[in-house]
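Pilot study result, target chain (428 residues):
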Amino acid sequence: MSDYDQSTEKQTMPWMGGQYTGQLRNSVPHGSGRLRLSSGAGYDGQWQAGKPHGSGTLIYASGGTFTGEFYNGKQHGYGVYTRPDGTITRGLWENGKFVRPQEEPQQEQAREQEQAREQILFEDFDSRPPVTERPPGIEPKMVTPAIDVDNLSHWYGSLQAVKEISFEVYPGEILGFLGPNGAGKSTTIKVLTGQLPLGGGAATILGRAIGKEDPQIQSQIGVSFEEKNLYLEMTALENLDFFASLFGIRNAGSLEALKRVGLADRAKDRVSNYSKGMRQRLMIARAFINQPKVLFLDEPTDGLDPVTAAAIRKTIKEEAERGAAVLLTTHNMFEADELSDRVAFINEGEIVALDTAESLKLKYGKRSVRVRLRDGDGVREEHLPLDGEQSSTRLSELAASPDLMTIHTEEATLEAIFIRLTGRGLVG
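Predicted structure:
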């Protein structure tokens, strides 16, 4: 009997296009569990932060299996690969590849070609950003959260602005805090970065407790707030060079950082001549300048035009791919959906839901289809839920109608789910 069968915390949920049964942590697979895909492929074993991590068995759609160690969703360590024809390869894998062959050269070449085809199964896992840096050796090691928050609280006088919230952010992960103004998003970041005192609970950043001046934490984090605290009489280049010097960084690559946010052509202009959007972009570049392991970004694209906002989101994704843990606050549901590996709904100081955007939509949303048809000189619409036999019959009738114009599937937005859970919108 597998460990997950013995667990009293076994849960079933959709994951990676299949069905996962096992233990969860913060609403993602974590612990012992089993994943089954419609193709017949799957994985049975240990998980961490949503990926195979530890000991387990990978079942390929072709019928082959790999039993051994996994790290960050890939074979890593000792393992046994059994082909569909029953032949076996034993040895060491690193980052998903066989590194210590045990067969004759011609057999090894054929095995590597087959493994390359089998690797397609892991495209879903590889599409997620890595949750930690690759270890120096081939032995797997456990991943610890870069940000670990346990029952954190903060008061403004008699008003409790943050109410015993708990969450984790892993290296390489983007956690989006989604909520309206005044929900407690910015307050949480200010407590974690030491600008406000810890009122209750506990939190660690990179394994070190917050709540006191700690140069080791400060040197490893990057911060961008809504409030702009730039040196207006200095140029953008001078701002970044000066900020880098506070970390003891020489040749910081300030011009390259400005290129990433589209300010290279204005690098030598005084910041006092910058628009609000340009200053926001400079704040983002400044947050990245020390290549931090943890990023706190408070409404990073607020007030930016769509093209610039898209460029900023691209740089945020690049930082996560580099291995940074990112805590992002926003009231923009599209931004949260596009950027975040997981989303936390925060309202009146409390986290009311925390999960992947896809899982939130599946759990709380309703799938529907919108059908538009000609109606004389006008147009009429019908909305049908996608679940239910009656809807299926009606949809077939409409699809066969000569008056049919368009059919569009619709899913619940994060804002609609937020309203359902909290009774209020994301703006205001």
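One observation from the pilot: The CA atoms of residues 180 and 426 lie 4 Å apart. A full batch analysis is planned for the follow-on phase.
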